Amino acid sequence: MCVRCGEAVDPAFSPAAATICRVCRLAPPPFVRAVSYGAYEYRMRDAIHALKYDRLHPLAPRLGRMLALAISQLAADAPADMLVIPVPLHRSKHAQRGFNQARSLATHAIDALRALHPGWRLTLTPSTVIRLRATESQASLTPRQRRANVRGAFMIADPRSVAGKHILVIDDIFTTGATVRSVAQELKRAGAASVWAATLARARWNNDQHGDTPATHTLANKAAGDADPAFETIDSTRVPPAVSPADNPQPASMGSSTNQPSF
Ligand SMILES: [Zn+2]
After folding, report:
1. pLDDT at 222
2. CA 109 to centroid of ligand 1, rounded, Å
3. Which of 21, 107, 124, 200 lies 20 to 30 A from 64 at CA?
């Protein structure tokens, strides 16, 4: 896996000792590292959809604990003092959904991390970043379109509050990384000392080989599915079909293969 973004890397394409994917080589990300708990597949996908679209809030503490385990991967490298910024929704979407799932996950993850890493001082600052545009759903967009879609979509409410600070950006899903990159870029521009990122789930793109072409289900996805004991008590019969018109990062039309970096 890429040491920067966590993308799967084919060793044939990245023979160097320090594994870094094609995207991060071509366009180094504005975050130091991005980590995830698991693949955006199977029960993880069902659980995220149940939280977001069916407002099944009792799932949030458990998913937050999983996010905390992802964030724990940063314990050796990340500073002990960080501001935690959930990726914001646009106010129209917030009004429609009634809550921001990234904020809910961040709140529960911070609770869990208090026990896991008592020395870590994580401060939730959910109003630091503002989403200026109700961005088009990313579902059917290519990676390049996704980057354009979120470019200029975020603004830092008070740049003085992030200047010189270490920041952890939280979101539910990392698909191509376009959203997290966009937020991290604005934070760096406002003077943040370092930006880190953690998401609950990660969609696999395998961009090291195929440019804009999404990977089909990989071994990692298969392994992360049914065998995950953390989901054993989630009753899958209560979970709706995992299809939604919004925020579904399964790319629908990904025909082109170019030499552009995809993230
Ligand atoms: Zn990478």
Report:
1. 34
2. 24
3. 21
Q: Which domain holds residue 108?
A: 22-238
- Cα dist. 173→29, 49, 50, 258 in Å? 17, 11, 14, 24
Q: Residue 28 is part of a domain; what is its CATH number? A: 3.40.50.2020
Number of domains in the chain: 1
**Residues, CB-to-ion distance under 5 Å, ligand 1:** 2, 4-5, 7, 21, 24
- CB neighbours of residue 33 within 10 Å: 19
Does residue 111 belong to any structural domain of this protein? yes
Does any domain span residue 210? yes
234-240: which pairs have CB atoms within 8 A and are 24 or more residues apart? 234/43, 234/46, 234/47, 234/59, 234/62, 236/43, 236/46, 238/50, 238/56, 239/43, 239/46, 239/47, 239/49, 239/50, 240/46, 240/49, 240/50, 240/53, 240/54
Residue 55 lies in a domain: yes
**pLDDT, tens only, 233-256:** 333 334 344 444 444 444 433 333
Mean pLDDT across the chain: 80
Q: What spacing in Å lies between the alpha carbon of 158 and ligand 1's midpoint?
A: 30
Tell me the CA–centroid distance for residue 94 and ligand 1, in Å.
30
In whole angstroms, give the CA distance from residue 126 to residue 130: 9
pLDDT per position as a tens digit, 182-194: 999 999 999 999 9
